[in-house]
Amino acid sequence: MQHLRDKKILLGITGSIAAYKSCELTRLLSKEGADVEVMLTEAAATLVGPVTFEALSGKKVWTSLWNNPAQPIPHIDLQRNKDLFLIAPATANIIAKIANGIADDLVTSVASARTCPLMIVPAMNVHMWQNEPNQRNVELLRADGVFFSGPVSGSQACGDIGKGRFKEPSEIVEDIISFFSPKVLAKKTVVMTAGPTFESIDPVRGITNRSSGRQGFDIARCAQRSGATVHLVAGPSSQKTPEGVIRYDVLSTEQMLDKVLELCKSNHPDLFIAVAAVSDFRSKTSSQEKIKKVPGVDEMTLTLVKNPDILATVAALDNGPLCIGFAAESENLINYARSKLERKKVRMIVANSVSAIDQTDNDATFVFEDHEEPLGKMSKEELAQRIIDKASDLLKEKVR
Ligand code: C5P
Fold it and tell me: Which CATH number describes the domain made up of 8-180?
């Protein structure tokens, strides 16, 4: 799925050591479908050659206000019809100039002539970042409506450690995707579950399932991009936490329920989405020591007890959130999904076949009290966005 298809991005690169990372940034933006046009300051061009960016963007790279026969007034024409002007990396120097309206080269002239939004990705030494004039300039730019991506803390090219480091290109791309995402969940709070649970039997063994957590993490990412504050309660999963999502790791169903109820109490969410493939049963006892084989004994009995139902519990809360659940079944999918909807008293069930577990694609149907909406096969990420769009519609209806 290309998230930046048809987006025209003008990328200004300035003279920070991190300029080499903008090669990867250009590649990733193009991979997401963006039409990228690159400009280099004189200092940037001494660090990374324009030919590299010409190959990566497939376009002529601009380095000067002057001697451009094909583009006599580049500072006006280059930014015309662009969806975003991105400066990455941005030095303290360029930040200072733009904050104060100085236009003495191509990149700063484009910045002052621009009619499109500007996003700045700073990259500099920690002391330069903290320097008071720099902080004043950053505040001026924020007040002017300029967007910032980073900087982050970490080790720096000079050996110092601290804030000022260039954000990773993939994270910058995520910020840009978020920037362009319609904010259908602006000012909304979402609590959700994802991944499997792990019900321990002894210190090393337990009952779990093959859920990767991918669908839930994709939903969390889309909710975050759509402007929501997202609290994600995750069972054991190796999925990367989406940028900006607040993650709480738990193991068992009971821990998951406790965390969800605590979050519902303290955050009064608008929406609860139960995506976790929760274990229906847990072992009645969990041994403190590893269970040993006993010579001559060929059988062992494990007594299982029912776990609490997180979704039904949240759906029963007074003034609780709008609830969306999942049904993964191997047969009679829609019938089971509808009976789940009625039993748990939730607004919508996303019905999908168990074959979706651990896969990248899904083929789901939205099941409501009085009708269903089959969606057909799509990536889990695409389905995630459809769920968020539907949740936004349901929230507007104000019916739980
Ligand atoms: O009853 P069943 O497990 O089939 O229901 C599936 C839906 O209920 C999913 O949304 C799942 O996350 C949620 N669930 C839950 N707590 C449980 C069992 C399932 O929240 N103990």
Answer: 3.40.50.1950
